[in-house]
## 1
Amino acid sequence: MVGLAGCRSDSGFGPDLGAAEADELKTETLATQERVVKVAMDELGGIDRRKGRTVVAVRCSDLADRRYVSLEVRGSFVVENHRVPEVAAAVTRTWRKEGWDVEPFDGFVLVFRMEPLHGIRRNGSASLHDLRDDPSGLATGVGVVVGTGCFAIPDSLVESGWPRGSDP
């Protein structure tokens, strides 16, 4: 596999990836989101109340060719018997132990960064909120998004509706 770190396309929106590299980036982004959620849930005893994860390719800019996309994987979990500040502190501590650069923002959002893959940056965020209607009466909802920077995919993937059509 050829490393693309530092490579840029002529458009400046991101490096060109082949189909195999784009699929690897998608697979790794899905696995990263799963790991981010799992380590936080393991630390806090969270309950996976997801109805599935969502993976989408987002066009980088209205000015960019439609081949230039970024990936986003979204999911969520619930932590019972803990309020937002406790969950935010525990999640921050846990993710830092994993080696991820985590910055609390506004007390309700955590932003984290990870090592790039194929020269594409990877980062994410977790938004935390009280679930006042939860049966336990004391719960925090955590929504997690893991995403990538922009990159170009081949026309064949654009035409296929990538990354749709695959089971996230």
## 2
Amino acid sequence: MSAIPFHDAIERESSGTEPRSKLPPKALAYFIVVAVVAIAVTAPFLAQLDQTTGDWLEFAILAVSVALAQFFVVRTPGNKSYHTTGVFLIAAVLLLPPALLAVLPLIQHVPEWLRSRGTWYVQITNVLVFMIATMAAWGAADLVRGADNLVASDDVRFALAGTAASVVLVALNSSLLAPTIRLVNGHPMRQLFSYQTLSTEFVFAALGVVLASFWTGNAWLVPFAIAPLLLVHRALSVPQLQAEARVDPKTGLFNARYFAAALTDELGRAQRFERPMSLIMADLDLLREINNTYGHLAGDAVLKGIAEVFRAELRRYDVPARFGGEEFSILLPETPPEQALEIAERIRRAVAARLYDVETSSEPIRATVSIGVAGYPKDAQDPNALIHQADLAVYRAKLEGRNRVLGASPEPLLMPADRSAPLVAVPEDGDHREPLARVPEALREQERRHTAHTTSGPRFLELSTRLGLLVGLVTFFGVSAG
């Protein structure tokens, strides 16, 4: 099920963008309303808790299962996170009395809270929202199961009750969380109402109906009901792995591999529709001196700061990337060189005006960049030539004193030995995409510098192993209880 992104709240605290113990006034008011509603819907049933008998074993099994499912979160691009808790929550809605069901959301979030203690309101809001949603789902299911005068078949009523509970749980959970995520983290509410999000949550809930049916009918079939969770976890992990493969881990910008593909695609589009496009190459000035004076961590901090400037100054559809080392590249679709020069100058000024906090200096340090701009079709007709022209402009900017922006020029330039070959848009490691790798010298140098790309086992394999243990435990205790 959806929840307020707990890891995002922790990152906001560490960056100082939001005080740890304070909520915006609107968010605080909404939090109070949610708390009042949660108390109102659970208090009457909690008063009957001491009268509940005979269901404690099922409660214990489902409580452990939902807590472990909450612990094994799958994060996807766009700051989304998925939990398989819906499977066990819907099963609990259909199997447990309301007094025990009201306690379940509290136990559900205990392991996550012990692992990552962040802002108080994030965890409490998640608990309150799940209390309201699960009790509403139970009410919907109980209403349908009691309609024996409308539907005579017990099996049909059970299926309809499970469907009603699933719809209510998913809809109410998303509806209650969306305002909080908007007010607290500033993320758009539509994230929780996308087809992908709602359909995924409903599938989890539907598996919960199957689990409850097998639990009451034949407990030996429980592992077949929850075994698909292994495959679901792997499938949900794929988009995040794909996103990580496109991003430079140090700066959060796109990496050279993705930039090469984007440049090829955008240049092809510009050629087909006869539209302009421009390319910016930016080189951090005197990075070696920064590293020698303040340490390599200071250089990394400056690189991250420049990446933040890019994100602040560029448009939504621009493609900023770390080309390699201290060099950056920016693809500007639908942008003539004249406009690209204005964007580049704005970036140069922002970088020069920014203060970079580093641990090895008592005062913030400053940095500058030299920028070159080349445009299609004015300066070059293919990706490598476009990069080369922008790189030559960077070198001219450095020769003229650094910290400046220059456009591509047809004038000849004496190049040093280390720039005799033009830059090519190839990744720092791994395979490259044709037709961007047309310079044999550059490719041979790339092969000498990097070994063949290998990857360790994906993280979702480790996650699936732990989830497999969860499946086994639920199966064992479910059979015992059944």
## 3
Amino acid sequence: MTGRPEAKIVAIGSVAILSSLLMTVCSAPLEKRSAHSVNCSRIGFPNIPCAVTPYTEILDLSHNQMTRIQQQYFKTLSKLKRLILSFNKIAAIEPGAFANNSELQHLDLSNNSLHDIAILPFNHLKSLTYLDISNNLYDTIYLGVEIKELKKLETLMLGTPSVSFLKVGSLSMLRGLPLQKVHLITQDLEEYEPGTLTALENLRDLILDFQIQDQYGIIHPLKKLNLSTLSLNHITLDDRITINLFENVLRSTIVEMHLSNINIDSIGKWDIEIISSQQINFVINGSMYYIPCGVSEKLINLKYLDVSFNLLQEFSFIPKCSNPFPGLTSLVLNDNKFSHLRQLSVMTFQMRNLTRLIATSNSLQLPGEGMCSWSRSLRHINFSHNKLLANVFSCLPSSLESVDLSYNAISTVPNLEKMSNLREIILTGNAISFLPEFAAGHPVRVLSIDRNAINTIDVDLLRSMNQIQLKLGNNPFRCSCAIQSVIDYIEHSHIEIIDWPADYRCASPLNIQGQVIKDLKFSTVECNIPLFVGVLLACIALVVALCVILCIKYKVTWYIHTLWLWVNAKRHPDDLMEGNFEYHAFISYSERDSDWVKNKMLPQLETNNPPFHICIHERDFRPGKSIIANIIDCISKSYKTIFVLSKSFVQSEWCHYELFFAHNQILDKKKDSLILLLLEPIPAKSIPDRFCKLRKLMNRKTYLEWPQGEFQQNFFWKRLKAILNTNFQPQCLTPQMVLVAISPIIRNKGTSSIP
């Protein structure tokens, strides 16, 4: 039919769907959209007042405790345009309650306790375009004369489940009103008087929500109305009524039809003789399990068919029909029992004009590999919320321009070169780990691959997609330095990334989990490997240089060299048994102090009765052995080691060796063997850094000091001989390391400087 909009016959799954849509529009709590919109829903009004102003235009008082609308409630609201009073307990409305609301356009009184709608005071509502008085407590539909004052009324919702009959006078007061939409609710009608609906002469949209025994009495007159939309809820369709319904609709001006909560009680003998010349769209949602060929082959001008929420399967939908729905362009199969994708393709093969196929929320799978037999005209498919795997791509037709495979079980996306017409692909909610690659020049312009398993993004691959609208959010991104280049590219290029940056967050590492990727800050060194290596090498070089400087300053190399000599000498020990000594003492002294040692010290010790066996390097070192080995050997074979300390001693390299080895001998043998003999005062500053052990020993322990007086010198020799006598053990000695101090004044262990 030329110049007319496409007709739609819509059967929605349950009355709740339509009701919920109406509730959304009419009675849902409003948000405070502006200063002129007030939401006082669920506050306990009128016991708790609602703060309104004279400028209030939208007022929501739903879900409160009102039982009666009083005159003063809305007296000051002359600017009110939308008033929602649903879900209260309103049983009466005082006359003049809306006297000052002449600008009111939308009034919702649904789901209250009104008993008589004939006496409602509507005479002042000259601007009202929408009125909902459905689901109250009246059991008879009879509208009073005041409703004729609603000269601008376009939408009317009325009726309750208590209404059991409709008569001609029920709606007669609506004649002449500019109504465009009426929603009529009753229970299973016991009586319907023919001609009741003829009062709705200018109606475009009619919703009949009831069940009657003789649907013919209602269906047949529909073709006389100038309807564009018809909704029939809670009806039972047998073969006769179905044929009657289709033929009357096809003969009428109806362009849209809703069948809600239908009960099909037939065997499918629907032989339709009328073939409409106008384009028709069907949506059937109920308990249907197949469509007879007599229907599918006769509906040659059917363009849109929605059979969601039924019991359809591949083998029962249009069984063995030679030319089903020859003019069909869009087919919706949501929430049915389809399970085999290849069989579904065979089912659509005969639909030569089919361009769009939607089959979401089924159980579609594709066993094995292989081609499928789709209609060659197919351009758009939607198989979301099924059980498809990656092999689904081998089944898709190359003619597709858009494909929605969201919320399946796809893990990889193969090469899509064969799909040369594909412009949009939606893969949301699968298990894909990597971005798919597209050949240069591929026409894809929209790619949704959010909510998958992608943790890394190749920035080079991203650059190749600069003409594609990408949706990658809510993936488990691993936030390492590599992602910095991705951030930089997205921020400084013209690529279109949907939901950036809010839906792009880190999943790992744990310390930044949940952080928005855009807010990440990586240092230049951290993300630039050559620079990082350079800085690392520079740091290593600095540390090495610092170590070298410290080694030079503190003679570390000397200690290492000396320790190596000591360890090397210990590898070839003499056959001296532990605890057997050849000497009472080994004397360590500098060459400048040799006269004092030879002329004073040795005569005192070696002429003693019995004589002490003394070891000195000038006399007792063994020829052929290294100096270091001789030093270690003599120290090991001596009961004590006497260090003659003087200014020249601390300047001698070999004296330092002897002190070092003697100190290590103490640690090795775990016994005291050192005797410090201070021949002359030594300024603390004159002791080199390498003599740190000597400095510590003299600061921590006591030592012998050479006196100047002869009497004191005699006492000095006696005390030294007593220490060297192995049979003489003073009571003050302990097994621990002790440095004995014998002088005119005994030095305290806490001495902090050298005199």
## 4
Amino acid sequence: MTANIQYSIAFLVSLASSLSLTRFVGSHARRFGLVDPVDDRKIHTEPIPRLGGVALFCAVGLGIFALCLKSGFQTFPLGRPMFSALLGGAGMFALGLYDDLRPMRARYKLLVQVGIAAAVAVFGIRLTGVTLPFLGEFALGPWSAAIITGVWLVGVSNAFNLIDGLDGLAGGVALLALCALFIVSVLFGHIGAAITTVLLAGAIIGFLRYNFPPASIFLGDSGSLFVGFMLAGVGLVASQKTSGNVSLVIPMVTLGLPILDTALTIVRRFLRLQPIFSPDRGHIHHRLLGRGHSPRNVAFLLYIACALFSTAGAFLAYPADSVVLLVVMLSMMCLVGLALLIQRLGFIEFQELGRLARGSITPRETIGRNVRFREASTRLAELDDVRGIFEALSVVFADEQIPRAEVRLQRWFLSRRPAVVTSDGRGDDELPVWTMSHADTESEGWWEIVLPLVAADERRMGSLVIWEDGQSYAASLSHLHVISEHLRIQLQQKLQLLGWPEAEELARHAELGILPFEKAVGAENTGEFGHRALRPTGSFKDLLGPKRTK
């Protein structure tokens, strides 16, 4: 059976199987409630079935069965290296499916992934050396080869799991990478790897019929981990110029987009003092969506980027130094474009890192805190109610490194009545309307820093007050510029725009001397927003009135 016939059988069977199975799995997953729920981090607005990986895995399996049936089951058509990669991919699929049905802790998932990758590295895909452009070949010992292989397999698997946050994105990126790896496999004579790319491509095309924006089914962890692991395995096998000697730069460039997004994610979360596996909305596709692009346009933009990476990876398979030099130059241009992209997309973490490089700030903790303050400023700009403003402040000031924070508003602002000015020219008293406290700041040694909130007509409408330990001011006050120049300005703009709901009721409380919070500090009760706060005489719910729904 010729290679072309094998390619045709593999593609057509996996494509047809995927088209029928994806629809079947989607309808039954919805019937049994196996859906991805809606939350603040997700983009979709209604629950979507998340077991698309089941259809994709079964479609690949049926394609392999058809090839074996055609050959009379005399030999496995993909060869030993790809057989071990498929076994590892099946293990990743099972792990992801279990996580889709019963969510696991990230550390346990990682432990199982390392075990699967180690088994494939030791008993399946064996590397003896690595080839790097302009540097030549480097021999690898058994331990170093196993470590490099394991890290690669686990890293790429999780990279695809992380990038699977937008309709059609992970599938489209995988399809473009498979095209490049097919070319590399054929050039280097790895027919088994080439057939595997065709199997995966057919299954993914059938799946994208239902996953392209707006999606009716998601890959889920079962699909993203399986596809990522298979791409990692195919990349290692396809890029071997000689037995066991892999040109590692080829799959690295080909899979450049998910690797890049994962690297940015790791650095961002490190700077933010967050766990590496904690979810957020800081991926490249989230940033593009935040810039006003539609999900479909974001997918196309990232397809173009992935196509450039895949083309560069395919060109690296040609041995001519001139071609390699051209690819290196293009890669340098891509790095420059990446730097501009980071600046354009507003990655606050890297802006703070730039300030660190210039010597403006020093500790990593300060970077993480500054990032949270600036993100809170961005969130405030999107809010349209006072309740949401104080919820956002409660989150950002939950960090106990800031002992206490308070928002005070002038009575004239709360009641919209003329300000009362005393004989000594001092403005009428301010009323504390929100407080977050982690320490007893009434004792000596605390600095009370008052940042004014000023209305457009230059009248003072209140204050944002924070307390700091005077003995550690050199480190603790390094974030004041962020609070003053970002959070304070956004807070005063929003308060002036929105005013204060139920103003007359609050003004009546003020006239009776009833404040929203007592002056006692250090109360251990849980406040309105789930953090330790000053004990209220009346809750925010009383002051703001019933929560309004749109």
